[in-house]
Structure formats: structure tokens, C-alpha cells
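thoughts on these C-alpha cells:
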Amino acid sequence: MLLVLSHFFENGRWGSLVGTAIEEQSLTAEDQLFILTQAALYLTTSRGMGSPEARICHVRAEALCHSLNRPMHLYVTLIGQWRYSSIHDKLSTTMQIAKRVYSLAQEQNNSAMTIGACRALTSTLYHLGDFDIAQQYAMLGVEVWRSGGIQREIDEVTAPAVACLFFEALSEWHFAEISSAKTTMAKAIALAKELNDMHGLAVALYFSGCLGHFEGNCAEVERCGSDLIELSTRHNFELWLPAGSVLRGWARSASGSLAEGIAWIENGLVEYRVTSSMLFLPYWLALKAEALHLAHCTSAALETIREAEALAEEREERWWSAELHRLRAVFLSAMGADETQIDASFCQAISTAKQQKSISLKKRAEATYVEYRRQRASMAGGRGFRLPLW
């Protein structure tokens, strides 16, 4: 399909539609809008959410949407810009686009738009670390979807109802509703399969693997990573293939195959950075740091965590920040660092988790801190603590 659409653009420059001197053969504004939105859809599906070519098409299409008064197409172009921003920009910028999508949905009183807008808000809020409000929008999106009466389906890269379900599941985990989180994630995967939404299935598999990692479940992470690699290879999902590699690498490392696991993680990071995407990088670097620590490369693990923290602040992607602080404390304690640095890192982890209302991360940070103090008291000035990663 992309090959066919490329013929409507000058020299393969997406966004630059071909012109013709013959009036009868020229593209109308309606034609241009259709071609631009379709090109953006297929570019995103094949080249990832951070495709700059797709963004160019969406920006060009937005002007046409306003001039032609096409709110449905405007929704599609704004979602496309939100998707690109979520990968590349500061999340505060992404949030402004998500709010524009929600305002448009409210103005149009359109249920399909509303579900999509809830997806945009819940995803952005989740990655900002606002799990409480993220869950509220996820639940609203699922409620609107379940109520039926969708006026008109909209072509999406990922079905918004699927996205609302897996973000609801992730939020449930943070609120220590572990069993419910697994059930909700299974529903997201089942719905993606029911809708034949292969891209949505890829994302759901990725986040299901994340849930497995949250719980230290190597077998689950290996299964999700392998399924994601197979699906992404079959459908040429450039964004999700590296995600599968990172998941598989962590699972292999945590299972004892350290050299193989670290290689999988590093390959995934290299492939992902080729796409110029930024979303998930702080989290993936945390997974790499855990693998390095298991391989007794704790100094390198600490440097990796510091890189992850810098990226998280730069992008405002703070959903895993509590864990980054806790892991820094774990690595510092293993290296016999100054007690004040270790205590400060643990306190940052606990404080961040409290602020974000993440019960699971708060409990984990507190439990690790208690274990650290127990070992410190029993070792009477000894160095090199071995604290749990999960």
C-alpha cells in the first residue's frame, strides 16, 4: 500500500504531493486529505510511532482539515501528531496535544473520538507518572467503548479501547491490584486479537512483558518478548521489534544467561535509537542496568542508571523514576558507597513513589531499604551489600 501511495508524492518526499498542469487530473483538496491521512497511517504502522514522514503528512493534513471543515480527519491528524510527540518531545508538549484531542471529542460529542482522546490522555499521564488520573481516563475510555453506540469507527494504528485496557492494567499494578492487572492485560490482548488489531496486539504483548518484569517473572517476560519478536518480524513493526529484543534480553539475563541477555538488550537499544525514538528508553536502560548488575558489572550498571535518570528528566518521562532511584541505591550499596548517598537514594525512591501514589513501588523501595539497614547493622561497618532487584 505504501508503494502505491508513494506515487502521489514528489520524488518519495512524504508530504509533498505531486502536481499536474492538467486541471482534470489534479488532486482536489479532498483527494489530498485522503492521501495524506492514509499515507500517515501506513507509515506509522510500518515505520513506528516516531516516523517523521508520518508527522509531515499529519501536519500538512491539519491545514486541509480546517479549510474543509472535517473534524473527523482533524481528529486523525491530531492523534498522529500526539503519537509522534509522545516518542520525541517533552511529555508536557505531548500533553497539550492530548488535551486538544479531548476538547475536539467533547465539541463533537463523538464516542469514537472520546475513546481515542482518553487513550491519548491516559498514555501521556501514565508516562508522566500521574497514575491516578491516568487510570481514571483509561476507565472512562473502556466505559464508553463497552456502552456501545459508537457513531463511526475511525482508522487507528492501535484500537483505542485496547490501549485503554492495557494502561488500566498498568495503573492497577501500581495500586497493588496485581491479580486485577493481569486479568485486565489479558482482556487487552484478547480484544486486540478479536479486532484483528496486530499493532495493538504488539503493544499489549510489550506491556504484558513489562508486567512480568515488574513481578520478576522471567518465564512470562521471555514468552511475551518472543511472541513480540515473531509478530513484529511478520508485520515489520520497526518500533516493537527492539522492544521484544530488550524483553528477551532481560529474561535471559535474569535466568542466568548473562552474556546472551545483555547482548539482546544492547542490540534492541541500538535498533531502537536508529528510529530516533525516546519513549521507553529510561525504562529499558533500567533493565540493562539490572542485567549488568547481575553480571557483576555494578559500576557500569550505576552509570546506566544515571543515564536513564538524565533522560527521564529531559523527557519528563517519570513513571519509572522511583525504581531508578531505588536501583541507584542498590548499586551504590553493592559498591560500598557512602551511607548518606545510599540513604538519600532510598528516600528519593520512597518519596517519588508516594508522590505518584504507586503503592507497589513504595512497598518495594521501603522493603529494600529495610533489608539494607538490616544488613548494614549486622555487618557492622562491612562493605558490599547484596540487595534484591525485585
